Amino acid sequence: MSSNSIDLNDLDQSANELGIGGTIAKEPDEESYKKRMQQRQQVQQLRVNQRDQKKGLIVVFTGQGKGKTTAALGMALRTLGHNKNVAIVQFIKGGWEPGEAKALKVFGDALKWHAAGEGFTWKTQDRQRDKQLVSKAWEISLDYLRDSEQKLVILDEINVAIKLGYLNIEDVIKGLSKRPPLTHAVLTGRGAPERLIKHADLVTEMTLIHHPFKEQGVKAQAGVEF
Q1: pLDDT over threshold 50, residue 2
Q2: What residues pair up with 191 in beta bridges, in sequence order?
Q3: Is 89 in the same domain as 195?
Q4: DSSP 3-49
């Protein structure tokens, strides 16, 4: 391990020990509290200064809980807000136009949205047709992944397409490697394969705790699910 790595680890440990403050802090007076927060600020600045690299990230949102696509679209909104181009390719989904697609039309040509599927497998009921649509969606995705004009490429529900056997994970990883150095890729959907998780830079798993459809019989609603 390099000395730089040791320094970073020491800084991280110092940050944890100093804490984040708030009303849970146990200082006897405000002056002591302020002193600790000043130390925390100094440590945090050092942590930020030491980590000054930039790279195009592979981001995975997976898990049984809701919010995977929503998290990805939050990144899209941020990117568009910085006047950068975003491409969204939806695998599996596509039988309807979600509210996000309607709302984001305000960004014009900066956003490219492809709903390449025809809905869930129990609706399409045609594996060969599903596989053809996934193959087409992947070809569209590859064009965007190679395009240096795209700052962010979202592959929505691609994890499900891989899980269903419609895409090979090695082909996906190979395609991701074609990105320009500063292009980010986001892959969403339940059941992200371990191979993808290991390859990714950032992975978040959404945990299901309560679900109104299963527990209360509440159907999908505009503004919540679509």
Answers
A1: no
A2: none
A3: yes
A4: HHHHHHHHHHHHHHHH---STT---SSHHHHHHHHHHHHHHHHHHHH
CA–CA separation, 56 vs 151, rounded Å? 8
pLDDT digits (tens, 9 = 90+) for 47-78: 888 888 899 999 999 999 999 999 999 999 99
**Same-domain pairing of 83 and 120:** yes
17 lies in some domain:
yes
Q: Read off the DSSP letter of residue 204.
A: E
What CATH number corresponds to the domain at position 83? 3.40.50.300
| 226 within domain boundaries | no
CA distances in angstroms from 113 to 31, 35, 188, 197, 212, listed in the order given? 53, 50, 15, 25, 29
List, for residues 44-55, the tens digit of each pLDDT value. Answer: 999 888 888 899
Contact 98, 119 (CB under 8 A): no
Question: Is 210 in a helix, a strand, or coil?
Answer: coil
Total-model pTM:
0.85
Residue 202 lies in a domain: yes
Mean pLDDT along residues 145-163 = 96
Residue 170 in domain: yes
Of the two residues 201 and 123, the one the predictor is more confident about is: 201
* Number of structural domains the chain divides into: 2
Determine the structural domain holding residue 30 and report its residue range: 3-50
With vertex at residue 225, the alpha carbon angle to CA 204 and CA 156, rounded to the nearest 5 degrees, is 50
